[in-house]
Specification:
39% helix; Rossmann fold; 20% strand; globular; 2 domains; 5-stranded parallel beta sheet
Amino acid sequence: MDFKSIRLFLFDMDGTIYLGNNLFPYVPELLRIIREQGKNYLFMTNNSSKNIDGYVNKLKSLGIDATRDDFVNSTNVTIDYIHANLAGKKLYVLGTNALKDAFREANINVCEDYAEDIEGVVMGFDTELTFKKLDDVSKLLTEKDIPYIATNPDYVCPTEYGYVPDCGSVADMLFNATGKRPVFIGKPEPAMPLYAVEKISKERDPLVTKENTLVIGDRLYTDIACGINAGTKSLLVLSGETTQKMADESEFKPTEIFKDCSVLLEKIK
Ligand SMILES: [Mg+2]
């Protein structure tokens, strides 16, 4: 494919532009050239436990100057979904204080305790999870047939030493207790890239479409799958958790596979 025709680049972060706390050396030049060519990029994350400022600071510490506008996360898209489908409803939020703050800023009616008149449940990746929250949600989902949504289906989230359970794992615990599964919003669902295409085409570049948008990531079943589901182009990089063998055996076929983003840099120059 012709990488020079791409107008919007949607980057996954860990495994794609850095690994843990190490930025890949070609990334600053890649981002600079995209901007110099009058094109756009955004960083796209499923993680709803931190607010965007946490990512701005993380990238700053690695030497990348980013602003809040350079990110799309599953929190933004979940807020959009709530406004479209659950507007004005009283929602129990199982998530971090950062997630609840972001919802309140968006005028969502957030509840933190069980109540009979709650009209929906929203779950995020909750690094402040308590048994009380599991108890509250189990009771709500058992007693009522109400909308139940979750920010992201990931089973695990990477840490310095390995992984911790993420939103998808907690959803499984609640399924075991209640028999109910949430509607997931983040990758591999198409909502996040579609949100990014709409935002950038409205705010910065009217020529941006799904067809000239490229999702770049290191995970087949989230990054690449969401690009395929959204109808964008997709680029798998082998600088993170996926090997060529895994790619060969996967049902998810990206538009292209590169060893890392340094090849993308050469292709767009
Ligand atoms: Mg990744």
